[in-house]
Predict the structure of Ketoacyl-ACP synthase III.
Amino acid sequence: MTDAPTRPALVQSTGPAHTRIYAYGAARGENAVPNDDLVGPIDSSDEWIRQRTGIVTRVRADAATTAIDLASDAAAEAVATAGIDPALIDAVIVATISNPKQTPSVSAIVADRIGANPAAAYDLNAACAGFAYGVAQADALIRAGSAHYAVVVGAEKLSDIVDPTDRSISFLLGDGAGAAVVGPSDFPGIGPTVWGSDGSKAEAVGMNHTLVEFRDGQSPWPTLRQEGPTVFRWAVWEMVKVARQALEVAGVQASDLAAFVPHQANMRIIDEFAKQLKLPETVVIGRDIETTGNTSAASIPLATHRLLVEHPELSGGLALQIGFGAGLVFGAQVVVLP
Ligand SMILES: CC(C)(COP(=O)(O)OP(=O)(O)OC[C@H]1O[C@@H](n2cnc3c(N)ncnc32)[C@H](O)[C@@H]1OP(=O)(O)O)[C@@H](O)C(=O)NCCC(=O)NCCS
């Protein structure tokens, strides 16, 4: 055994014991697109889409509006509602799969636009679980002393990566962004995250081609597609277990919840969750999919924002949120609503 080299002890940071969500912000695409506008090229009908998915209209953004614009608007609202000085935000995390530029990140531009420059900023690719992943990271960064406040955004302009003739997923998708400000708390406001992945099912949902194939003229513009029934079964059987675990590790029961906000993938999946989790009727369920569609990383914060607008009495109550999607990946946690 050799003696340890003589060196000064490092400082390692620690932060507050608890965190919570201070406020939400939301931005939806400017246009409500009804089912009838999309059914022609996929030989479908308004009735089929309503019955199989619960979607009546989805929101889609103007051509000139970007995921960065949507993210900035949602983040700015969340920061204004939280009432914090943007200079105290040290981390901006944007979950997205639809920024058409690989680099620079959406997050650095959003940080600058909301007055948080020079906050650490990075994008996160966890598809429809992206917001739950971002909340997990913000919570951990703050409790580790790496940030005072963090902004988590889910932002998508999915209409840029849909094929109007695709029957598997395109008609489900919408454009929007939802944001949350996370910061220190006197009480536990974000329960432990249950998260994970199953890359053996990577082919179940995702892009149908690479940009290189497109460049080389070997494919059309890459778009999203999925094996719908495979994803549906995985969501209903496996994700209910994840939701139960998130309740268990947070030390609460379904009957303690004020709200349930699952990823807005399909109304039938949401109903099945509610049934299997035996949610009492007092639990308000996020059903934003009906008029917003599936906005991937944005869907949970958009649905939560709407719930808080429509049911202000939920403030201070517990919400279970669960995201799941391409990867496959999943993430769930119980949070105290601001
Ligand atoms: C995509 C989805 C709505 C399809 O619904 P489904 O009930 O599974 O439909 P199926 O694929 O089993 O097809 C059932 C029938 O509808 C038809 N069909 C499929 N897509 C259709 C469409 N878009 N319009 C009209 N008919 C359609 C099929 O051809 C089939 O017809 P058949 O019975 O005559 O053979 C559903 O699978 C789903 O929501 N999956 C999960 C989505 C999800 O969670 N994604 C997460 C990642 S974002």
User: Anything to note?
Assistant: The first strand starts at residue 18 and ends at 28. The two ends are 55 Å apart (CA to CA).
